[in-house]
Amino acid sequence: MVDFSKAQFDQAMTQALPALWRFALSLSGSSDLADDLSQKTCLRALERTSQVYDVTGVRRWLMTICRSVWYNDLRANALRQTQSLDPAAGVDVAADILPTEMNIYAREVFMSVMALPEAHRSVVLLVLIEGHTYKETAAILDIPIGTVMSRLSSARAKLRPHLSDDPIVVRKKGLR
């Protein structure tokens, strides 16, 4: 039995859209493809609202659908990615409320994450940015928890030389 109204479902969908788009970006590596993938995901979700029994899981459900849509597109269409050499071109990660130095650092962190292989990007985004547990991430990506932990560990090791608690230290050490 469904324990929520259409308005509650619509609100849950709306609140999940930024996280869904970021996840789509982590899969596709392109903001244009992320837009398309998010739209396809929302359409599929709206066609299958009868599958939702609790609005608290809508965000995870959307990400699972997004992953499925992405892989279906890859298989069915042999999707060609036409994007610039800069994987974060056209993506605005800066916030107006942060100091300029922090905005530059946020962009550099984002560029480092986007340079990771897709499997690592997805895990980093879901665990470290979106705050999903390892178990939730494993369910969304349909992989074992051990694989989530392994990919996250690998991603952290690859990112570690590029990141610091203090962005000024990173610049002075010449890591960028």
Automatic annotation (TrEMBL):
Domain (RNA polymerase sigma-70 region): residue spans on this chain: 15-78
Gene3D superfamilies in UniProt: 1.10.1740.10, Winged helix-like DNA-binding domain superfamily/Winged helix DNA-binding domain
One matching Pfam family: Sigma70_r4_2
Transcription regulation listed as a keyword: yes
Swiss-Prot/TrEMBL GO biological process terms: DNA-templated transcription initiation
Ranges of residues in domain RNA polymerase sigma factor 70 region 4 type: 114-159
GO molecular function: DNA binding; sigma factor activity
Transmembrane segments: none
InterPro entries: RNA_pol_sigma-70-like, RNA_pol_sigma-70_dom, RNA_pol_sigma70_r2, RNA_pol_sigma70_r4_t2, RNA_pol_sigma_r2, RNA_pol_sigma_r3/r4-like, WH-like_DNA-bd_sf
SUPFAM superfamilies for this protein: Sigma2 domain of RNA polymerase sigma factors, Sigma3 and sigma4 domains of RNA polymerase sigma factors
UniProt keywords, alphabetically: Sigma factor, Transcription, Transcription regulation
Family stated for the protein in its record: Belongs to the sigma-70 factor family. ECF subfamily.
Name under which the protein is recorded: ECF RNA polymerase sigma factor SigE
Native source species: Pseudooctadecabacter jejudonensis
Lineage of source species: Bacteria, Pseudomonadati, Pseudomonadota, Alphaproteobacteria, Rhodobacterales
